[in-house]
């Protein structure tokens, strides 16, 4: 159904028949390449350090682990110290590689685990999954990319991980590796475009920068208005 | 409450007397400006970014037909549907038609100025659907049945006490004015709606023509929920929201959050390119994009006003405007307030309705200076004033005095005798050394008293003195 397509396009074409106004901002500066407009952020000694700094600046909580065992230990401590009762784990490659479900289950028998990849096979299960995820205290996922200069996580909807797992729970922990970090948005978008051309990957790609927040009541900053109240990251740096 | 720009003067003179309201606006706007300033301090390329953004918008607006067709092709290729709507009614009818087909009962909406512009929520509710605004600020004003008072902070005019009383009255909870408690309650209530809703409606901050993607910028997560949980997602965008390329977007994503809230980046930016893809675990089964004209093609036809279509709705010009700060968002009687609202409201609704808005400006140019896409807002206001005068929208007294003034300024004899007459009258009434009074105009401004001597008298005296000293 096209609605009033022809009429609207006709109106636009007639409107554009009158020439645009001369540029009236006095001077006409040279157009700078978009990458260069992000250049001041290249002066970062270490991408990892910059990411950590920016991530905590937006109220994210980040830890660096040197080996897979300490990732498990860090998560265990987090679940215990925050008294999380239910934990959901996505099917991201890194989560499976680290065998998060198996290892955490063995070590924390009192905690209830939701394994997203297992629990989402049929439609009915999917429907229950959203209810389950909504009541979950913590979700643990991987992610596709990180952006250093703004401390963002970039996730892409895919058959291993849903869109809602990083959104419905009260806290979201993302496990990442340093090779996923890009200096800034301009560089990351170039890389995505080079890899995928004009069809972006997944139905949805999401930039997550800190926990969900609002300032709609008298400009008072409140976290967790709709999405997670806490956003955490464990960076597995084996170098 | 339904408001109209016709009553700008009435609303403004009421609001300006409300010192509580003025303080609320002063606090909120200065807070936003401070954060913005902090956020742009570490961006040495700020001016280049603004220029670049302006050029990208210029490119797209001057070839709007081309980019819209490209966007349409790509959205369809990605598995989405595109609907072109001439006006708000066509857009709303389409949304209703989809809602009926999928037998929707509950509709969740994320914050969108475009759907506010066409009153979509009201239309859906009149049709018997439960249409829930899910942005906390929008939820509050929906309960209060009010218009947004700011482009990015719709409930900016309300105090926590007012919101507490509103929740008590409308939602039947015990009174609290603790923002965290109010917020936690809204989270619980709205989470149920997200779980139940069959249809999600969102606005669009940017639509990427080359990839067929809609981009939504937010902090709360309600836009993510509205576009993820329901079976069907409809995104409604004004025609001007398209930008050419995915690769252009970083420029706008660097400008927008810094300009509106002073954040480097908002909590969430969603890039939605299609309905759920095979194998994906969640996301809507249908994705619809509504392209809304509603007067935009007419704005396009006026090369002088075309630039107003560059607006990315950041709200910075509202925060910096000395008029907005004092009269508040509701005075404008339109969902779009502040300087940019004073430009686009007359263009959307007609100068005969919104003739006072272009005059609600000191023409100080602060709006043009702060605009992240370099819209020449104060000159647009000036041009609209010109149009208002030419189409006879100004009061007859003003037109008459301007005619007399013009007559006097063009004719030496008339000027001389006119000013002598004025002096004579003032002298006889003994008010020669007092400020002049012009009904209405001089109530809030001073027109200085006439100088004791005219320029010609001074000139003659100077010549005489010079002759004497020679």
Brief description of this entry?
The complex is a heterodimer of chains A (239) and B (470). Chain A has 239 residues and is of the alpha/beta class. Chain A has helices spanning 5-16, 47-57, 68-81, 93-97, 100-107, 116-119, 123-134, 185-196; strands at residues 61-65, 86-89, 112-115, 138-141, 145-147, 152-156, 171-176, 181-182, 204-208, 213-214, 222-223, 230-236.
**Shape label of chain B:** elongated
CATH H-level superfamily of chain A: NagB/RpiA/CoA transferase-like
The first-to-last residue Cα distance of chain A is 56 Å
Quick check: average pLDDT of chain A? 90
Tell me the CATH topology of chain A. Answer: Rossmann fold
Estimated share of beta-strand residues of chain B: 5-15%
- Portion in helices of chain B: 40-55%
Tell me what you see in this structure.
The complex is a heterodimer of chains A (239) and B (470). Chain A has a single domain (47-236), classed as 3-Layer(aba) Sandwich (Rossmann fold). Helix content of chain A is 33%, strand content 21%. Chain A has helices spanning 5-16, 47-57, 68-81, 93-97, 100-107, 116-119, 123-134, 185-196, and strands at residues 61-65, 86-89, 112-115, 138-141, 145-147, 152-156, 171-176, 181-182, 204-208, 213-214, 222-223, 230-236. The longest helix of chain A is centred in the first third of the chain and has 14 residues, at 68-81. The longest helix of chain B is centred in the N-terminal third of the chain and has 23 residues, at 19-41. Chain B contains 21 helices and ten strands. The model of chain B has no long low-confidence stretch (mean pLDDT 94). Chain B has helices at 8-15, 19-41, 46-61, 64-77, 88-101, 113-117, 120-126, 136-144, 160-171, 179-196, 222-228, 249-260, 296-300, 316-320, 322-327, 338-349, 366-370, 377-390, 396-410, 412-428, 455-469, and strands spanning 81-85, 106-109, 130-133, 199-202, 206-208, 213-218, 232-238, 242-243, 268-272, 286-292. Chain B is of the alpha/beta class. Classes of the chains: A alpha/beta (239), B alpha/beta (470). At the A-B interface, α1, α7, α8, β9 and β10 of A face α2, α3, α4, β1 and α8 of B.
